[in-house]
Amino acid sequence: MNERRLAVNRLRERLPVDGAAIDRFLARHPSPVVEGERATFLFRGEADEVRVRHRVVGLPDPLPMRRLPDTDLWAATTTLPSGSRVEYQLETRRGDHYESFNDPLNPKVAHSPMGSSSVCAATGYEVPDWVHHDPEARQGEIVEDVLRSKALRREQPVKLYLPARYTAAQRYPLLVVHDGTDYLDYAAMKTVLDNLIHRLDVAPVVVAFVPPRDRLKEYPNHAPHARFIARELVPRLAERFSLVDDPQGRCLMGSSFGGIASLSTAVRYPGEFGSLLLQSASMVFTDIGSDHGGGPYFDPVVKFVNRYRARPTRPVDRIFMSCGTYEPLITPNRSMVPVFREAGMTVRYVEARDGHNWEDWRDRLRDGLSWIFPGPQKFVYE
To answer: Which parts of the sequence belong to the Enterochelin esterase N-terminal domain (predicted)?
Structure first.
């Protein structure tokens, strides 16, 4: 779009304007103002400095906002390609005091374990309809359980999803989800499962949602965690439920560090699982030296990935991978695709114009789950 035709620039051409004119402008133009592939972030208030904070690789962070002369309206315009989705906050400086907060002019908010952020959706992005409650979809059941784990030396809570009309007369595939509680709370995964199974996109599946106690310790190639998953959790579930007795019916899933937990568990127990579903997996590595830039928590991750890249193995048959093009992990994820393929695994890899966040991972669930466990019209377990 021609810069002069942007709404905020048309307002600038009318300066000076009074407060009532600003009120009318904001009423007509919800913030951020998305016009073609340009997005204008707005803030109204007194401050010495206002900035847009985000985690979009390729854009300046922070993105400085400029005050329109003789007004209390601030604005910053940037490129936002079609289909993009960006989470952000605003930061103000008043003297030596800095404050970060969600955009008060934008009601769209995303939640995560770290808090909430405002959401800017570009032209072409829509929330998938299958993430919302469908009154016609039969509801699965969430069952809470606690396992006494010798490997972890503690009691481990697990939430189990049983699909609607679960019956012992049928065998079901098993999906084990790392950061399971977060997938339920921030990626609407129970609703997604109900809807996708109802629509025959995904086979009826039993899902174990497993929360960590200390994910930064237990997820990066941690032997006790892998032993718990492969030698305690899966056998326990096989005793309790009617599951497919074949690796092809078992999948490990996780995002970020949970992706590393899934991959490293499969590597430690090759052949126990048929597939992996990895979302923005933290597959950070170094080609020379040890300066990976991720901090000490990434040391065991880098050690594991470096070792795997040096001697790739084939722990599973298939891997679904997704990653946001706006996150720092896009390069290592892209780089691992040929490594996995050359090791003999079938890989489906998808990208989205999004970042490292739960709604991006939510939006990729249909792609991943329907590829790993296709609906009954496409695939039948014997």
So the answer is: 39-91
